[in-house]
Amino acid sequence: VFPPHTAQIRDEKGNELPPNESGILWLRGPQVFDGYYDEENNQDKFDRDGWFCTDDYAHLNRERQLFIHARRSDLILTGGENVYPHEIEVLLEEMEEIREAAVTGLPDEEWGQRVAAFLVPATDSPPTDEELKQRLEKRLSSYKIPKKFIWLEEFPRTESGKIQKKKLVEIHAPKP
Q: How far is CA 10 from the centre of its chain?
């Protein structure tokens, strides 16, 4: 973040977080826009000191370098818990049998959303769902472990190459 702009990482209650802790990115500076045309869209976007909430999840390291992880709209709410897909995707992609991972929430009547992992294999013999769960249990809280693993040959993508998670949800969401 270059001066005269400043950045803060805050928790859900608006408290500033220390370096290397992930939270919500807030920005302030002359190039930050003044707000949305429709005033209703500005609620909770600006604080009284002029900080703008980007709705991105990020962290600042000790050198104040900014690392953006995900959009807040990607957040999965399951049983009252917040799950950040990026955290799970990184762990899955560290596995040699997985080329790519996309984690999202699928609608669920009981929990609101259930964590689902869409995976593209890197080998001819991908791990079983049970093997994936066992590996993830060592590094994640139980509510973050995907309840469903869906293997695909490739992901639907935008023209710029971004994975279309909404399309994955549309295709694979439980039908009423």
A: 16
